[in-house]
Design brief:
Helices cover 35% and strands 22% of the residues. With 332 residues, the chain is α+β, with helices and mostly antiparallel strands. The strands form three sheets. Strands 8, 9, 10, 11, 12 and 13 form a six-stranded antiparallel beta sheet that branches. Strands 4-7-5-6 form a four-stranded antiparallel beta sheet, covered by helices on one side.
């Protein structure tokens, strides 16, 4: 049997559901790997990187299934895991360190998307440590304040939307979020419209686009913003969680839009040099222009996650997905 490490971020006792979810993923992935003939062993990563290196050298796994989404509760350290594995020349699943870094930092990702001619909502960066994006004047209107590094809708709720007449109106809410939740924050223009997720998986060296998914906003009152915030993702008893179902059913007139979403997602795969699997999140405005919100180089693999739902729609079982991702493992 193949000696395989399932690597994940250390989850402290009492961690919030978004952080603890990686343990659900690790358990499900381990079960699938065992069914595929691997001998899986969990390894939790914290900031004692030398200890992790020593343990990996001692175990000498033939494969590491990388599920690290954060270290010590911070998404800005996410690229440490693939960096270590590349240094040790151990084959691992998913994206390389540079791809993980450039997609996890939303500002860096937006700059790269913009330079490549892929539409992403205009944004405002806090002056000082960051800067306003040159050549892309910030439009007045509704903006969404979000974290630079954290994903899974952490810190996003109805208070994240701000009416801005100019960039100056955004400084206070950005500073408030930084003081309240820590880390770095920015603001981007809110795209009123539909929300889509496009999942991609590598099969025998080729990228396959899985069936597109749309997030519906059912019965939202007029004063409730149609966003997939933290409650919609993690709080199962909330109105937002119950009323943002995922659908794979589309009208015939959506065919052209869905084809464009798939093409843009493939362009994102190439732009960031992704491996294994990924998900691209979109908003589509009222005249059917797609805007890339985020490129997720290591989307959630929980059995109830959107990526697994898209794979199931394509006829792939959970074990099929893990088999394909493991088969695409590289040394970096």
């Amino acid at each position: 049997m193949m000696n395989t490490i399932v690597l994940h971020g250390l989850v402290p006792e009492g961690a919030a559901q978004d952080e603890a979810d990686v343990l659900v993923q690790a358990g499900a992935v381990s079960t699938a790997l065992a069914a595929l003939g691997h001998l899986p062993r969990l390894l939790a990563l914290n900031m004692d990187l030398q200890a992790a290196i020593d343990e990996l050298l001692g175990i000498r796994p033939r494969l590491v299934f990388n599920l690290v989404e954060s270290i010590n509760g911070s998404g800005r350290f996410i690229h440490f895991a693939p960096s270590i594995l590349e240094h040790l020349r151990i084959p691992f699943t998913g994206a390389r360190a540079d791809a993980i870094l450039s997609t996890s930092n939303k500002l860096l990702a937006k700059r790269l998307l913009d330079r490549a001619g892929i539409r992403t909502p205009p944004w405002f960066e806090k002056p000082g440590g960051a800067r306003r994006h040159p050549g892309s004047p910030f439009p007045a209107g509704t903006c969404l304040v979000k974290s630079v590094w954290e994903h899974a809708s952490i810190g996003i709720d109805e208070n994240s939307l701000v009416q801005a007449r100019d960039a100056g109106d955004l400084m206070e809410p950005i500073l408030q979020r930084e003081a309240m939740l820590g880390g770095e924050w920015f603001a981007e223009s809110f795209i009123e419209g539909r929300e889509f997720n496009i999942s991609l998986i590598e099969e025998a060296g080729r990228v396959r686009v899985l069936p597109p998914a749309e997030i519906l906003f059912r019965g939202f009152p007029s004063d409730t913003p149609k966003i997939v915030g933290y409650r919609a993702k993690w709080e199962t008893g909330s109105f937002e969680f119950r009323n943002t179902p995922r659908t794979f059913e589309f009208a015939a007139e959506d065919e052209g839009l869905l084809r464009r979403l798939s093409e843009i997602s493939m362009n994102c795969w190439e732009l960031f040099g992704l491996n294994g699997y990924a998900r691209v999140d979109f908003r589509v405005d009222g005249v059917e222009v797609p805007w890339v919100l985020e490129v997720n180089a290591n989307p959630c693999l929980s059995p109830d996650a959107g990526f697994i739902a898209a794979a199931a729609r394509a006829g792939l079982s959970y074990t099929d997905v893990i088999d394909r991702i493991a088969s695409g493992a590289r040394c970096g």
